[in-house]
Amino acid sequence: LVPLDGSGDSETIVSCLKQPLRQTLLDATLFRVAAADNPSEAAEAKSYLEDVRRRLHSQRIDVFSALGLGRPAEEILLIAKARQQSLIAMTTHGRSVLPRALLGSVAEEVLRQAHVPLLLTRPGDKGASWDHILVPLDGSPESELILPAARRLASENHALLHLLRVTLESDPVEYLAAHRERLDADGFKAMPVLRHGHPGEEIVRYATQAGIGLICMMSHHKTGSARLLAGSVTEHTLRHASCPLLVCPSEAAAGLRSAPWTEPGGGA
């Protein structure tokens, strides 16, 4: 599901998905929401979706389109559930004079309630190579649920996996080393990275320093008394990271193993 708001900024996510769409690795539905009590806005939204669909068709990319009426976040979640979408892909903010309009009121609301993974990018992203993928881990089994998707995307993109642990405690060297050894044994390139500080800040800082093309992380879970990779960290990363994020709520983890966009040979 690809939500759009009618702006060029919101179409950034479409540019990021053109390769898998052209290779028919994804069945995409373009989705726009209009006010339920405004027929002219609904007509304009429908016309806009048809225009985007025609533009993509001229580039040998075929997509579906659908119109929702109501509140954007609610409609996105409803259609994703009704159509059993395996992924929601969207730009984190679009048409607005407010700096966090879609980022705050829609993308984050969808993230908090979604039961499927989200691929999120910022306006203007040029679809850089995903040959360096960052996987933040906090030492819990829950945070490791993202690894199957990260492995499949790394396989498709011949990527180096950066395994990042941010902690205020003793160095978890053995934990990271064990993951690297397992990945190495399966033919993946992996590099353990240890940082100290605030998880969200360190994830963003390392992603910038290392030239990361994609961040894969779990969201909405706790480890002991600390919300290390919970919503607040995910939202901080969303607001400040300069590369796309693949974010999976804990409730959607089971679907990662069978999602069509993470099947071997079918990465984005």
What tags apply to this protein structure?
seven-stranded mixed β-sheet, three-stranded parallel β-sheet, 9 helices, 20% strand, elongated, disordered C terminus
Distance between the amino and carboxyl termini: 14 Å
* Strand/helix succession: EHEHEHEHEEHEHEHEHEH
Query: What are the low-pLDDT stretches, counting only 5+ consecutive residues below 50?
Result: 94-104, 221-230, 264-268
Biggest pleated-sheet summary: 7 strands, mixed
* Mean pLDDT level: 84
Helicity range of the residues?
Answer: 25-40%
Radius of gyration from the alpha-carbon trace, in angstroms: 18 Å
Strand content: 15-25%
| Oligomeric grouping of the chains | single chain
Structural class, judged by helices and strands? Answer: alpha/beta
Number of helices: 9
- The number of distinct β-strands equals 10
Label the overall shape. elongated
Describe the strand arrangement of the main beta sheet, using strand numbers: 4-5-10-9-6-7-8
Protein architecture, described:
- With 268 residues, the chain is of the alpha/beta class.
- Helices cover 38% and strands 20% of the residues.
- The strands form two sheets. Strands 4-5-10-9-6-7-8 form a seven-stranded mixed β-sheet, sandwiched between helices. A three-stranded parallel β-sheet has the order 1-2-3, with helices on both faces.
- Helix 4 links the parallel strand 4 and strand 5 (118-121).
- Helix 3 packs parallel to helix 4.
- The longest helix has 19 residues, at 39-57.
- It is elongated and about 60 Å long.
- The protein starts with a strand and ends in a 12-residue tail after the last helix.
- The relative contact order is 0.15.
